[in-house]
Amino acid sequence: MTYTPPQTLSFEQFIAQYGENTRYELIDGELRDREPTGPHEAVAGSIAGRIYVEIFRSNLNWIIPKNCLIKPLSTQATALRPDVIVLNKAELSKEPLWQTEPVVCNGKTIQLVAEVVSSNWQDDYARKVEEYAFLNIPEYWIVDFRGLGGLQFIGNPKQPTLTVYQLVNGIYQQQQYRLGELISSQLFPELQLRLDDLILA
User: Fold this and answer.
1) What does the DSSP assignment read for 111-126?
2) What is the distance of C-alpha 64 from the center of its chain?
3) Please, is 88 exposed, middle or buried when counting C-beta atoms within 10 Å of its C-beta (0-12, 13-18, 19+)?
4) Least C-beta-crowded within 10 Å: which of 46, 58, 140, 201?
């Protein structure tokens, strides 16, 4: 039996073939299936809705696009597709690809990213933490509503967990929240949100 390595794609090939297919993202040239399910999408929609209410209430010049890719300028063949992304409208004019594709490259444009954990949880807890910190994204939420992540990430016993990463001097500091606990966000200090609020009964 011989091993056949997966076909690698360039960023341009990925955009041409999968740019509008929200199921996929590209990491180091490798096509990744985000494996969205109904509950996954419902949780992502709940996050976006709760955050949008805070944006509107606080009169912030931010948006939550329906579909958006992040292409870190430091990588050639990576296009991350977060479940929820909050963008600063004032920075969009500086984005080189935005006028032709829903793609952002500059970390200054991004205020917050949220990922809802699927079976490929390793990407959310490892690779994306590094990428988003390198881009200086102020907050990164990992919403592990089924408790799928490794024990080193969510503890033992495994249970539903929401982890908020907040950037401090270029390094993410993390705080974990379990069911029933009020989540704290520096971007949205008046947010009244618990993990329970995001999960459909």
Assistant:
1) EEEEEE--S-HHIIII
2) 12
3) middle
4) 201
Mean pLDDT of 69-74: 89
Q: How far is C-alpha 9 from the chain's CA centre?
A: 21
Phi-psi sector, 147: left (phi>0), alpha (psi -120 to 50), beta: left
Runs of H (alpha helix) within the chain: 11-18, 38-57, 121-122, 128-134, 151-154, 195-198
Which range (4-18, 56-70, 77-91, 129-143) has the least confidence? 4-18
Is 34 a residue whose pLDDT tops 90? no
**Distance, CA of 147 to chain centre:** 17
**Rg of the chain in Å (alpha carbons):** 17
| Helix, strand, coil fractions of the chain, as percent rounded to 5 | 30, 25, 45
Token pair in block for residue 4: 């056949």
> Looking at residue 122, what is its pLDDT?
86
pLDDT of residue 42: 94
Q: What is the mean pLDDT of residues 84-97?
A: 96
Q: How far is CA 167 from CA 89, 111, 148, in A?
A: 21, 11, 24
- Domains of the chain with bracketed CATH: 37-198 (3.90.1570.10)
